[in-house]
Amino acid sequence: MVDSQYYLPNDVGISALDCSEAFRLLSPREKMYAHYLSRAAWYGGLAVLLQTSPESANIFVLLQRIFRKQTPAQLEKDATAFSCLSGCSHVNIPNSVTKVVINLHLSRYKLEALVKASQAFQEQPTEMKALWDSCSCLIYSLEKRQKQLGLGDKGITTYFSGNCSLEDAELAQKFLDSKKLSAYNTRLFKRENGGKACYEVRLASAEQKGQNCKFSVKRGDYSPLMEKVASNLQQAQAFAANENQRKMLEEYQRSFTLGSIEAHKEGSRYWIKDKSPIVESYIGFIESYRDPFGSRGEFEGFVAIVNKAMSERFANLVSSAEVLLPELPWPQDFEKDTFLKPDFTSLDVLTFAGSGIPAGINIPNYDDIRQSEGFKNVSLGNVLAVAYATQKEKLTFLEEDDKDMFIQWKGPSFDVQVGLHELLGHGSGKLFVQDDNGEFNFDQTKVINPESKQLVSSWYHGSETWDSKFTTIASSYEECRAECVGLYLCLNKQVLSIFGNEGQQADDVIYVNWLSMVRGGLLGLEFYTPESQSWRQAHMQARFVILRVLLEVGEGLVGLKEVTGQDGKPDIRITLDRSKISTVGKDAIHRFLCKLQVFKSTADVAGGRALYEGYSTVSDGGSHDFLRLRETVLLRKEARKMFVQANTKIKGERLNRVTMVTFVTAEFTVDLI
User: How far apart are CA 153 and CA 120, in angstroms?
Assistant: First the structure.
């Protein structure tokens, strides 16, 4: 029996993110500013094709050549499954963290016939055949190693050459730390020279030059793309609204030209100072979710327009932050010395280039800037609107009485959770650091570790960061911490009031928020691979961990009951005792969240790993057989809904089932390979 999680159904939905009215209201100057930033983002976004799986770039170029010659409507009349593949290839730019192949009804031979029948193939048979031959086998391959991202025999990645192991990644990280180089914009390639391993660290930059040693650092990775990114950022400067924007773009341009993370950090400082712009943007090598080692950033660029009404609510949450932060369960010494009030705006996305689009963002990810200079939060309003709409479809694993309430209050509860997750989740907590001069940012003679009851005995040194220390678990661990902050503080009536929830409505929003997290933890099992005992999605792993914490506490708070569905097949029913959320549930999250923060603050990698990996374990579920539950989740998976909800992306106009997004600039993409 074929595992359905790897196959793409023909009825995958497409959701448009509406930004037409927001864009119409921009001035001509603001439109040009957004235009050049969008071009920079889309050109840089093509680097993602080279960051994840070997076949991604070739699939993309193959499809681009076909679609330049024929419209999606002309192609769809020949094959719905082909249209579905092309839509998901454009939207999911690289194959996702899990390998996804076409519906079984479109065999490799049928797809080959469709490709060869295309006008592009007829006009350039040699080039098109070379493209097809380079990716056709890999499109359909479900060999064990090719099913997911990973290092060595755990999976595939193009952040590292295929001969790199976890030990190589650790060695390279030590080298980068010793040279005070960030891994965010790098890839690592290993070769043998006279029986000795030599490593090449490639920096993403327009310039191409390097230095030689056992470790060589070479500029020029994605050079043609970075050159176009830098060029469009330079053109955007002419339309900047203020000096902060202009200097921000100058530094970003320098970063992508030289491969300098320090320049990007400097640009991020100007970005933080650019308060409440009409056109908001950010660009760079940002999130490390898809690096198997957890240190390298995937290229991401977005351009968006402020939604003033919703932004007002987030501004009120920011104003209340200094009152809410002391409510969190860790001691005051473990919180930032000063809360630097950030911008928190609701945005309608105009452009989002990368492998996926979240509901909210807290950036920059540079710990030293976040701790001492600040950050920004954004909530992506038109993405949330799409997420709400998908809830009208059939819900799995909920009691019938819960379904209507879930549909009614999912939107408002998600607003609250996203706001708390981004502002007070990612925006809270202190890292204890001893800098290169031996200076501490905390009193090491007085600060007590609340877990050990002893003086704090570990901390970050010099250029060490959260990502470089906690590596493979850093992303998911941090998402779990932020999700826990959202659950914990959503019980606060002041928070609920800020978002317009009072009385019974406030209680219902709390219930649905917690219910959504429990259900998310169960659905997260789809993103676990038993063969490699690994998780393929950071947020889903985080929600599963929270589910296990709530199940462990017992007392009837959360239940997972295995039942038989009306179709005679296995099913699951989730129960959540709403009367115990504010007592049993709150106490459980209080204890767990405090541990998460303490291990993070003190750079206690061993303690943090033991805690987080323990709760991430699927094979040892105590009274629950999570592997059997996973099989039921896969059985009951609503393929269309899961793809729309988990992979909502920026779309262009809806052209039948094919998403032809506007990032296809490209006199250039044909030369990508």
Answer: 37
The answer to whether 90 is a known ligand-binding residue is no
Q: How many C-alpha atoms does 111 have within 13 Å on its Cβ side?
A: 25
Question: Quick one: pLDDT band at residue 117, thresholds 50, 70, 90?
Answer: confident
- Report how far apart, in Å, the C-alpha atoms of 423 and of each of 47, 416, 509 are: 29, 11, 19
Structure confidence by residue, pLDDT tens digits, 178-189: 888 999 999 999
**Residue type at 360 in one-letter notation:** G
Q: What share of the chain is helix, strand, coil (3-state, %, to 5)?
A: 50, 15, 35
Could you give the CA distance from residue 576 to residue 402 in angstroms, rounded to a whole number? 10
Tokens representing 592? 């767990």
The number of CA neighbours under 13 Å toward the Cβ of 629 is 26
Q: What CA–CA distance (Å, rounded) separates 85 from 12?
A: 10
Which is it for strands 376-380 and 343-353: parallel, antiparallel or unpaired? parallel
- The DSSP 8-state label assigned to residue 272 in this structure reads H
Of 177, 234, 232, 225, whose CA–CA distance to 204 is shortest?
225
Angle (CA) 319-322-326 rounded to 5° is 145
> Which residue would you say has higher pLDDT here, 275 or 558?
558
Active-site residue set? 422
Predicted model pTM = 0.76
What span, in angstroms and rounded, lies between the C-alpha atoms of 425 and 379? 14
Burial (CB count <10 Å: 0-12, 13-18, 19+), residue 454: exposed
HEC per residue, 223-250: HHHHHHHHHHHHHHHHHCCCHHHHHHHH
Alpha carbons 123 and 98: distance in angstroms, whole number: 34
Strand partners, 287: 298
Dihedral sign (CA 552, 553, 555, 561)? negative
User: pLDDT tier at 63 (50, 70, 90 boundaries)?
Assistant: confident
Q: What angle do CA 242, 246, 249 make, to 5 degrees?
A: 140
Cβ–Cβ contacts within 10 Å for residue 455, how many?
12
Q: Is 479 annotated as a binding residue?
A: yes
Element (H, E) at 64: helix 56-69
Angle formed at CA 334 by CA 333 and CA 340, multiple of 5 degrees: 95
Contact 65, 120 (CB under 8 A): yes
How far, in Å, CA of 52 to CA of 33, rounded? 30
Q: What is the pLDDT of residues 8-49, one digit of tens each?
A: 666 666 677 888 888 888 999 999 999 999 999 999 999 998
Print the SS3 string covering 147-181: HEECCHHHCECCCECCCCCHHHHHHHHHHHHHCCC
Torsion sign across C-alpha atoms 648, 649, 655, 656? negative
> Was 421 annotated as part of a binding site?
yes
Q: Give the residue among 170, 107, 117 at the shortest CA–CA distance from 139.
A: 107
- Tallying the residues shown for the chain, one arrives at 673
Q: How many Cα atoms occupy the beta-carbon half-sphere of 200 within 13 Å? A: 17
